[in-house]
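2024-03-11 09:14:02 DEBUG pipeline.ingest accepted 1 chain
2024-03-11 09:14:02 DEBUG pipeline.ingest length=208
2024-03-11 09:14:03 DEBUG pipeline.predict start
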Amino acid sequence: MSHHSVVSKLARHYDRLAEHYDSAMDRFEGWLLGDWRAWAAAQAHGRTLEIAIGTGRTLLFYPEGVAVLGVELSAGMLQYARQRARGRQLPVLLVRADAQALPIRNESIDVVVSILSLCTIPDHRQALAEAYRVLRPGGRLVLVEHVRSPHRAIATVQHLIDPLSIRFACDHLTREPLELVPQCGFRVVEIQRRRLGIIERVLAEKPL
């Protein structure tokens, strides 16, 4: 399948989910993420890019003084993100775009945020490379992602159901984006895991 076909399939998938996405996330996000979405938003300053912003759930948490640029493949998801943006006294620009090919100038962003997105972006290495490209030297990369558990039994289950998850939910359960972060040039500053190791948060920097 061509890159364009894969991206189009992903956009259609989230267009179908958009109407019920927030109600589904409301049921389990508190257990899964706890306060980590708020933590991710608190790392933001200046011009902040959130890739795969979805329905804009993080917009509720960004502090004053931040200018948010959100990119999202799904027009349906962006419709809900725009509703959330109207409720915030922040400059917010929402754009339908691919995180693997950002329409953004080199070294023009202060912070890149990704929350539960690298599991669905087809080429997550390319998304991280794009984040590196658009970040200014000294800029921050903030990740909150679900990953492969370090516990063998849980990881085994993840591997078993991963093909079905990819096929029907466009969701990769066994990815380890942390392995790619330094390969793309970032310096890792902080790592934490929770929920039996399946949720990971990473703070990294683009070296000066």
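2024-03-11 09:14:41 DEBUG pipeline.report Residues 101 and 130 are 7 Å apart (CA to CA).
2024-03-11 09:14:41 DEBUG pipeline.predict end
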